[in-house]
Write a structure and sequence with these properties.
Length: 307
């Protein structure tokens, strides 16, 4: 994407949150990463998100993140839009990665600074500083997992900053979703940050979703989204219900740990997680194998398991 206008135009639909595959030595397996990217592009995903919270960015060094951005954009080119997470606890790193992401033709995804006792005014000033650094603008990620939840009222104010092209909303409280959809729809792009419960936000008028579990279940999650997109709410509901047992495990054992384990059952190379995360336990692995086998028996899921 060459500028903010093109970014706004293309920023919609279903984006795969591509896990970062670490090998046994803890290094990024770029060949596996490219395979996983090509799989979802071939299936028809509208875009990808790289190096986010489920891409394990907090445990990566700055040099690794620079290389990750460059390698991914070399693979993807301009085929689909790419969100590149430039969040960090260090504003210096955010500045550098935000500028790099825009220069490469991606869209920087920026969280609020995750420090204690920061005020709304300081958060606003932070985004005002970051937005002009990228020629494609920035996507604000409202990520409660980092310890700060932006209120709908504050998001409305942040939407007025030139260069903010969208919000990725991680707070899925129905009241917050309703307020954001009705106050900001059409002003910028609205993304639901979770595939665990995206039907509601999409029905409220959000422009798209980002999905981690599509690394393991790309077919059924894509089919669910497309059904909803086409106005077939009954089919979307039934398909979403189809993988409820998997979602229950994801909530219990965490993402991306479960995603990478499920990818392995399908013969996809998601690699392993990096400390402090640990692979799922043997008992969780047994439960996951049962859930994946059940999905593979239902032709609607599209799931096939490795032999």
């Amino acid at each position: 994407m060459k500028d903010i206008n093109e970014c706004r135009e293309r920023l919609r639909g279903i984006f795969n949150i591509t896990v970062t595959p670490f090998d046994a030595q803890g290094d990024i397996d770029f060949a596996a990463l490219a395979e996983n990217i090509e799989r979802v592009i071939a299936l028809g995903y509208d875009g990808i998100l790289i190096g986010g919270t489920y891409g394990e960015f907090p445990v990566m060094l700055l040099d690794e993140r620079r290389r990750l951005f460059n390698e991914v954009m070399a693979v993807v080119g301009d085929r689909v839009p790419v969100m590149l997470c430039s969040a960090s606890s260090s504003p210096r790193e955010v500045r550098e990665l935000t500028a790099l992401a825009g220069d490469l033709g991606g869209l920087p995804m920026v969280t609020p600074p995750f420090v204690s006792e920061i005020t709304d005014e300081q958060i606003h000033a932070f985004f005002q500083e970051m937005a002009p650094l990228s020629k494609t603008g920035i996507l604000i990620y409202n990520a409660p997992g980092i310890g700060i939840t932006l209120s709908p009222a504050q998001l409305v104010k942040l939407a007025e900053i030139p260069g903010v092209v969208g919000i990725k909303q991680g707070d899925l409280n129905p009241t917050a979703i309703d307020q954001i959809a009705n106050q900001l729809r059409g002003r910028l792009r609205l993304f639901c940050a979770s595939d665990l419960a995206f039907l509601g936000p999409m029905m409220c008028g959000f422009d798209g979703i980002s999905t981690t579990n599509s690394g393991a279940l790309p077919e059924v999650i894509l089919a669910t989204f497309r059904a909803l997109e086409q106005g077939d709410a009954d089919t979307a509901r039934d398909l979403h219900q189809l993988w409820y047992d998997y979602r229950a495990l994801a909530r219990q054992h965490g993402q991306p740990q479960l995603v990478k384990a499920a990818m392995a059952l399908r013969g996809f190379n998601g690699g392993t997680v990096r400390a402090p995360l640990k692979p799922i336990s043997d008992s969780a692995q047994t439960a996951l194998a049962g859930v994946m086998a059940a999905l593979a028996r239902d032709p609607r899921s599209g799931v096939t398991l490795a032999r």
